[in-house]
Amino acid sequence: MKIHRRIGALRKMKCFPCQFSNTIKSAQFNTSALMSVSVFEQADIISTVEFNHSGELLATGDKGGRVVIFQQEQENKTQSHSRGEYNVYSTFQSHEPEFDYLKSLEIEEKINKIRWLPQKNAAQFLLSTNDKTIKLWKISERDKRPEGYNLKEEDGRYRDPTTVTTLRVPVFRPMDLMVEASPRRIFANAHTYHINSISINSDYETYLSADDLRINLWHLEITDRSFNIVDIKPANMEELTEVITAAEFHPNSCNTFVYSSSKGTIRLCDMRASALCDRHSKLFEEPEDPSNRSFFSEIISSISDVKFSHSGRYMMTRDYLSVKIWDLNMENRPVETYQVHEYLRSKLCSLYENDCIFDKFECCWNGSDSIVMTGSYNNFFRMFDRNTKRDITLEASRENNKPRTVLKPRKVCASGKRKKDEISVDSLDFNKKILHTAWHPKENIIAVATTNNLYIFQDKMN
Amino acid sequence: MFMRGLKRKCFDGEEDIEETLAGIKAIPSYNLQRQSLLDMSLVKLQLCHMLVEPNLCRSVLIANTVRQIQEEMTQDGTWQMINMQNTGQASVDRLVSTDILCRSSREQAEGKHVPGYSTFSKDFEGDQAQDSSETMSTASSVQALRNLQSNVWEMENSQENKGNFQKSLDQIFETLENKSPNSVEDLFSEVDNSYYDLDTMLTGMMSNTKMGHCDGLEPFPSPTTTTSSSNCKSDLNELDHIVEILVES
User: Residue B101: pLDDT above 50?
Assistant: First the structure.
């Protein structure tokens, strides 16, 4: 019942294309700057956001174990300056809270990750995972139904056989579109620790799931078996100093994957080398900057997300203060580094105290790998243009909800005299964090999740 | 976001250092910072213990930080700086912490206390305890950390909390026997073992949320501790938030 009420609320919100002023265009970006905004209220905290391969569908997972899928409307030919809006397409409860009786621990239903499978037929498939269990969901449409049965009335009651005098062939008649989600596979009981990543292989047959200490390889058809391909659990748990934080398959090479660690290293593994890929093929690590050394150095070097570029040549990692782009051919340092919120470096102690230093920010590439995006605090999110080396800070907030709202670039003043329209570091709201962002695979449409809301911004079409 | 902290009380150790280092002001405050960081980290680890599902990555990072501080402190030979607090502050009202904390320490203790830096019970108060607790404090601190760690990790795997604590407590006692008192006595001449009181540290955690500055200000607990919900990202607050949402919907 909770879900239906929420769907009702969601439908009320509509997408408003906004005119974006020229200030943005001239300021930072190559692409022009109209952003249109949709805001969807969600009762629970959004925990993951993911576009499908065509970009037509956008899936979000939340802390309550629900998955909400938005669908882009077909382009409106009359309104040439806006692309289709996103509306709610389907909502379903993916995971339920569970209780592990052996350990007396609750298993959260929060959806940690969603990954779409490429579309092979009329139905859509996605993988969603909580801390322990991965599920393959099939989302299918039904817009016709058979009518004209001989033995049944339209409402399902059986007819008295003696009243049947003629025979007819049932025909399909159109009906209101119904979107159904059904779980097709449940991949369970393979992880002792909390699953942080899932990644579908480019062979579209296998996928990996990674928890804090192990990575397993699954076949999409087989649920009762998985292969352990990485295991960094020490024999003596007292010696544990490093955990796996994220893992991803290479977009083109089906034998290659990477995993990142809490010590700021990324290991690239080749599954052809051996069954157990504990020995990496490549180790990506940047030497520490001695001038920036502090007790928090290790914590802020912990990588919270790793993403391959669409081309497969680069990968991007997100640590607490920066985004780094690595060339797969060069292991000793990243080729590009972008500071997300360097002004927080002097506040690390306080951020450690209130646990914000452990926040796991994600990052994403745009379709052409020219821009990368990541979130920050105070509902800010940042974009970095790799070609022009320009960057921009934007805010996802209700003020930008109205139509024709100008999305203004924001600036944080680190120290000294605060200029007009700048925000000082001390007035940032650290409870408003943008951890999850996604970029449409083909167009300049982005989805940004604040704690409770999902914002969809679009680029202006000239 | 950043709240004022309590002003730190003066203590002998600090003056000594200042004298010996010819009044270089930076160093005492660095030590204080480091110490407060150590306190905070230990408390965070202890709290991990008591929460239902400790986040392994966070625990590992905090434990690594603690280890790093300890190593540095051992190298510096600054264990004598540990004397953080006058005995006067160890008042009873500071023992007032949350139910969970009291309950857990009682559960685990059965007359004794949790491992790590925790103190021993009344049996060990007084002068006779000085030696043993001093020894325990340094020599087994790394050991205790490992015990704590293993407890935290093993929380994930087994429900044998009491067994684990007992085990690590045994290990601490073992270490006590093995270590020769002379070597560490000097280091601990000024240690105030009430510092390692679990409850003290834990209430310190609660009041820490009020303090944003780590620039040498003493994060020790004040009797009026309130968790500032806008600052403290504790699981308790998260739980409240979720309950709020459920109730509203």
Answer: no
Cβ(A113)–Cβ(A128) under 8 Å?
yes
pLDDT above 90 covers what percent of chain A?
68
Q: Does B213 contact A350 at a Cβ distance shorter than 8 Å?
A: yes
Cα(B182)–Cα(B184) distance, integer angstroms? 6
pTM (predicted TM-score): 0.69
How many interchain CB pairs under 8 A, A with B?
110
Task: Please give the full DSSP string across B207-232, using - where no structure is assigned.
Answer: HHTT----SS-B----S-----TTT-
To probe the interface with B, which of A2, A103, A353 has the most B CB atoms within 10 Å? A353
Sign of CA dihedral A225, A227, A232, A236: positive
Domain regions of chain B by residue span: 20-74
CB atoms within 10 A of CB A168: 10
- B contact residues 151-170, partner A, Cβ 8 Å cutoff: 153-154, 156-159
Sign for the CA dihedral angle at A456, A127, A92, A132 comes to negative
Compute how many other C-beta atoms are within 10 angstroms of the C-beta atom of residue A447. 24
Mean pLDDT for chain A overall: 86
ipTM above 0.90, yes or no: no
Closest CA to B37 of A298, A381, A333, A434: A298
Helix B198-208 vs helix B26-50: crossing angle, to nearest 10: 100
Q: How confident is the model at residue B238 (pLDDT cuts 50, 70, 90)?
A: low
